[in-house]
């Protein structure tokens, strides 16, 4: 759920008016997203998303996130467009929080992933990477490889309560990843959190990419590795190689991928699995009981990590030799 | 938050199509309401609310709730209209749950209550009561006076953890209410849960009443008593007699209220305070830690109950003698 800050009708009216919008005829808190407060804002002009940025988002990063959407939308990527006020600014303040209004994208996120979704995703991800090539801003990946050890250190004590020997196994994995992490891969603007609830479809065609609040500068292939984890496992934790093949084949059809990048996929996929395992583990251990958040099972990503650990090469993801 | 059941795009498309709606272009879980799963459904025709009825709602009550909205909307009450399929039915099944599509009402619920809101509310509540006079269905108030003792029995053991001697004080109150509860008051269709988040406004004019899922057949003045509790206390628990006076004056301007009803207001207000105290107390004690629900403080209603206990007559609510 995601309404942490309540806003009054007068405040919303005044805020929307500053962006040139007319009468506000509806405001509904949206139960999706966990970092910020999101409202569906209905005005005479149509529908928008009003986002109030909450404490987990660093205000210094907001110009980057707004810039990403602005840039990508200008390059034809189907992503939300931040509205601007006459002074050219997209960011404002509402109810004591930084806030912005972005366009409402058509489409539904897929509750059941089908192979066609993965095919569309692969192509869209590649086009997003290409569209970001001339984006001038950069942002380090806070939850990239260098962020993992401090995150694990904070959760190691509680990890035993989640699964026996989990902390030791994760430290071993971390040692391995730090020793073997690839370098020199092509990098640029990545989404870094492209889970199914951030991708909209209509009739099996991809219509939108949303939630750029983890976007950063990192290896393009790492974004692919996140998607392999998020889209290609079934609910019984089995890996669906057909979905992976379609994801990768459609990605590589749009963006030329080097042999070096492909060879790195298994270790990047281990890293991506560890990243989501670690943040889920942290939230699992540190979220107070009764807090208003649906906790996600960290062990789902332990099973995914175990799968990637058993992979001998990128062929396991359906890539032809 | 209120999305308990996830629905797939194909299921939603087929469901909406049966109601004569065209392409579904958006589906967003709504973070309001706690009993059911509510989605904003966007189609080529406009916006609707899709509700999946969850376990706390008795399916046998659904025809009553749908009938209430249908009837009141037909009498000009600004409430949602349930869409009907060609077979005349409003209720369907979606993702294994009973479900319905209702119209989207314009307006925002007031986060800060002003006296003007209470004035509008009073008139709208009276008009709703009058519009329900020829509604042919009836439904007992499950959370009316007869429901309170069993509810308290289930929470008495845990009540001490909330406040010392709370259970004993509530049993004393219950004894008093059972001995002194008024009879013979005018009754009919009431909303029974008309809190601010169920009432929409635009520019201080009331534009909608929603969430009829506690509607039942009970004393009209009890509905007023619920509103006195829900609308006329400030966040510091002080009673705002100006708001109460406007609520009551505008109600009585629309519907003739007997001296008997007015005299009963203090005890009805105690009963209404106890009703919300008891359901909050039950949820406070029985909701598992970590459950995905924001618990409401039962003691807020203890303070309201204490206020009404100290009232000597309806004049305390701003009514002229």
Short summary:
With 321 residues, chain A is α+β, with helices and mostly antiparallel strands. Helix content of chain A is 42%, strand content 15%.
- Residue-averaged pLDDT of chain A, rounded? 93
User: Helix and strand succession of chain A?
Assistant: HEEEHEEHHHEEEEHHHH
- Hey, roughly how much beta strand do the residues of chain A contain? 5-15%
Order of strands, widest sheet of chain A: 1-2-3-5-4
**Tally of extended strands of chain A?**
9
Quaternary structure: homodimer
Q: Compute the CA-based radius of gyration of chain A.
A: 20 Å
The H-level CATH homologous superfamily of the largest domain in chain A, spelled out, is Aminoglycoside phosphotransferase (APH), C-terminal lobe
Identify the most extensive interface between protein chains. Answer: A-B, 37 and 36 residues
CATH class membership of the largest domain in chain A = Alpha Beta
Shape of chain A: globular
Class based on secondary structure composition and strand pairing of chain A: alpha+beta
Summarize the biggest pleated sheet of chain A. Answer: 5 strands, antiparallel
**Helical amount of chain A:** 40-55%
Number of helices of chain A: 9
Question: What would the CATH topology of the largest domain in chain A be?
Answer: Aminoglycoside 3'-phosphotransferase, Chain: A, domain 2
Q: Which architecture of the largest domain in chain A does the CATH hierarchy give at level 2?
A: Alpha-Beta Complex
Compute the number of structural domains of chain A. 2
